[in-house]
């Protein structure tokens, strides 16, 4: 996998380079500030981009803006955004551009190497990878909506779906059968008014679209 990294912190940037190359991936380019990001992505057109939300010169949302601009220029570009904190507005804005091939992780997750690499590979494959803490924030900050009608188990299933987990993984994590997971998913979609007749990532995308208010 060819990856472009955009991160202003030199230590973390070099750590990401070492982590990815050690895992057999190619780092096509690195960027340390917003002006460097889009040119690098357009030149190398990587399989995935790993971008920090806050970058120079303003340290506000430069990395996110670069990610959104890149996805406009390169439709479907897989983007994994890293953030120091759960910032709901940034997560919602990224997902609002289409949830296919997007991820939003807290930087602490990078230290969990297997989880980080798994998330990056899912995003590069066109899937989703939302940090569990981000999903929790998106779910708990909404009030007076159909989420309130879900049972605790259905909320667990929805959260795992939003993280990008497939049915088999959900079943293993919750220690239930695949059939039980399918039933819970059907109930979730029925209560949220979302189509339940498709499989794979489309179900996850529908959930993310709902969480984003789409």
Automatic annotation (TrEMBL):
The modification 4-aspartylphosphate is found at residue 52. GO terms for biological process: phosphorelay signal transduction system; regulation of DNA-templated transcription. SUPFAM superfamilies: C-terminal effector domain of the bipartite response regulators (SSF46894), CheY-like (SSF52172). The keyword DNA-binding applies. Residues 143-213 form the HTH luxR-type domain. Residues 2-122 form the Response regulatory domain. It holds the Pfam family Response_reg. InterPro entries: CheY-like_superfamily, NreC/VraR/RcsB-like_REC, Sig_transdc_resp-reg_C-effctor, Sig_transdc_resp-reg_receiver, Tscrpt_reg_LuxR_C, WalR-like. Keywords: DNA-binding, Phosphoprotein, Transcription, Transcription regulation. GO terms for molecular function: DNA binding. This is DNA-binding response regulator.
């Amino acid at each position: 996998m060819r990856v472009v990294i955009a991160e202003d912190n030199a230590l973390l940037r070099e750590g990401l380079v070492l982590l990815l190359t050690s895992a057999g991936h190619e780092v096509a380019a690195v960027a340390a500030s917003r002006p460097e990001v889009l040119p690098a992505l357009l030149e190398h057109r990587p399989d995935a981009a790993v971008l920090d939300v806050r970058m120079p010169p303003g340290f506000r949302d430069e990395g996110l803006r670069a990610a959104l601009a890149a996805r406009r220029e390169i439709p479907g570009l897989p983007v994994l955004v890293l953030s120091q904190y759960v910032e709901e507005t940034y997560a919602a804005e990224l997902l609002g551009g289409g949830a296919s091939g997007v991820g939003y992780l807290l930087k602490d997750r990078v230290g969990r190497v297997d989880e980080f690499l798994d998330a990056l590979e899912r995003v590069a494959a066109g899937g989703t990878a939302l940090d569990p803490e981000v999903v929790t924030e998106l779910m708990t900050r909404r009030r007076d909506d159909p989420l309130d009608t879900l049972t605790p188990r259905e909320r667990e299933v929805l959260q795992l779906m939003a993280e990008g987990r497939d049915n088999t993984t959900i079943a293993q994590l919750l220690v239930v059968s695949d059939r039980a997971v399918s039933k819970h998913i059907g109930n979730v979609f029925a209560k949220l008014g979302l189509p339940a007749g498709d499989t794979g990532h489309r179900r996850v995308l529908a959930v993310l679209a709902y969480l984003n208010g789409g």
